[in-house]
Amino acid sequence: MLETMRFEMSYTLLGYQAHKAQVGSINPYLESARRLHLDVYKKSVDAAEGLYKLPVPSQNRAGELVDEIIAIVDD
Known about the structure:
It is built from four helices and no strands.
């Protein structure tokens, strides 16, 4: 989930990093938001029971992934 969020926000984060390099100072609001996002994701994962890792080697094998998810849910 965290990597998805980082991907979706990649342009914003890149812009902020460039701004930070140009200005030489950090934006406390954005730094605080980054820490809070990380905290939320960590707490949500820690609170979840029965986590499963599903490797997705390529989009071409999505059918196998669906079968794997159904097998986990049916257990």
